[in-house]
Design a protein that fits this description.
388 residues, seven-stranded mixed β-sheet, binds 4'-deoxy-4'-aminopyridoxal-5'-phosphate
């Protein structure tokens, strides 16, 4: 349409045009594209569960038993008892009284932030928060203020300037999705106590990955606090689809009644719920998968730094290779394709201006050889493009 031509050509000129590339098939660590097998380092399937036999059979069995769709919203007739089981298991993982599943992580953030936060409330949001947190916070109509990434001093200042009648929400990623570093949760919890604020913690990338039990950022810091509302996804380490809130019973009851993206949408299919339960079984019973993920991630992170790459303070299996200009990041990514490595460039608006990067996600099922191939490719092209 003529109307959009100008916008598209601006995106093209700025090297910011995005397009969908069909993938013929994937195993968790490789993809097939146009007849070529490429090593995959950009999936959030951290534990490699998307093809795990236990998850596959749980999904297939659920389809055989209950069919393919939810049929209606949870509040009408879609609320299979399986949901109760999943929500109890999620509450246990997160050490909370209760939990509520939404269709995706994105709609969880829209729904929960939109319901919890009123127009008169103050929202304090980390500068590097995920887009769905920003969208949810904006949708709520509350006063939106951004603090510098992990800067608890600036946060303290903003909290102390709030109106005395104003309820405050500190909104943060647990693991930052593009930098792979971890929010300073103990300090945030202290501030929340001091200023009577609530914390909304998006643990999309922490759930199943961080902490001795895979419980996420709270488990990692051993922080438990009724002021923290924990959000998570079933779509990343848990290998399926969906999002959830884990919190006290009253907050969950409130969401069931007030969160429009929960109320006015169809229940997830039973197979998706069954897959999530099977993933939680593995997270509880097979900690070796998580340990291997950390061993590989720590190795890659150390080696990438040794090569001279800027990895933006990564502390987790998300390890960015900072490039800077969008154009250079695109060229780097193209050249990696030539080496048989699939690692798309991440550009604004997903990351700040001059913050274009290659975002490496390590998976527990990568082999040592695959990681070495990636390191060699990064070193070769990094030198060629004078990134290192
Ligand atoms: N929060 C964060 C931090 C994310 O990275 C993502 C997905 N990229 C989401 C929420 C949305 O989750 P989902 O993909 O399950 O909708």
């Amino acid at each position: 349409m003529l109307h959009f031509e100008k916008e598209i050509s601006i995106l093209e000129q700025e090297h910011l045009l995005r397009s969908l590339l069909p993938i013929d098939s994937f195993s968790p660590t490789t993809i097939d594209q146009n007849g070529r097998r490429l090593l995959l380092f950009s999936s959030n399937d951290y534990l490699g569960l998307t093809t795990h036999p236990a998850l596959k059979s749980a999904g297939i069995e659920a389809i055989q038993k209950w069919g393919t769709g939810g049929g209606a919203s949870r509040l009408i007739s879609g609320n299979l008892r399986l949901y109760t089981e999943l929500e109890q298991r999620l509450a246990r993982l997160k050490s909370t009284e209760s939990a509520l599943v939404f269709p995706t992580g994105y709609t969880t953030n829209l729904g929960a932030l939109g319901a919890f936060i009123q127009k008169t409330d103050l929202i304090l949001s980390d500068r590097l928060n995920h887009a769905s947190l920003i969208d949810g916070a904006r949708l709520s109509g509350g006063t939106f203020r951004v603090y510098r990434h992990k800067d608890t001093e600036q946060l303290r200042k903003l909290l102390s300037q709030r109106k005395s009648t104003q309820r405050s929400f500190i909104v943060t990623d647990g693991v930052f999705s593009m930098d792979g570093d971890i929010a300073p949760l103990p300090e945030l919890a202290t501030l929340a106590e001091e200023f009577d604020a609530l914390i909304y913690l998006d643990d999309a990338h922490g759930t199943g990955v961080l902490g001795p039990h895979g419980g996420g950022t709270c488990d990692h810091f051993q922080v438990s606090n009724r002021r923290i509302i924990q959000m998570g996804t079933l779509s990343k380490a848990l290998g399926g689809l969906g999002g959830f809130i884990a919190a006290d019973r009253l907050s969950i009851q409130y969401l069931i009644n007030k969160a429009r993206p929960f109320i006015f949408t169809t229940a997830l299919p039973p197979s998706v719920v069954a897959v999530a339960i099977a993933a939680l079984d593995l997270i509880e019973q097979a900690p070796g998968i998580r340990q291997r993920l950390w061993k590989l991630a720590n190795h890659f992170r150390y080696q990438a730094q040794q090569l001279g790459f800027n990895i933006c303070g990564s502390e987790t299996p998300i390890i960015p290779i900072l490039i800077g200009k969008a154009e250079t990041a695109l060229v780097f990514s193209q050249k990696l394709l030539g080496e048989g490595i699939y690692l798309p460039a991440i550009r604004p608006p997903t990351v700040p201006e001059e913050g274009s990067r290659l975002r490496v996600s390590i998976m527990a099922i990568h082999t040592e050889e695959q990681i070495q191939t990636l390191l060699s490719g990064l070193e070769k092209i990094g030198k060629e493009l004078r990134v290192i």
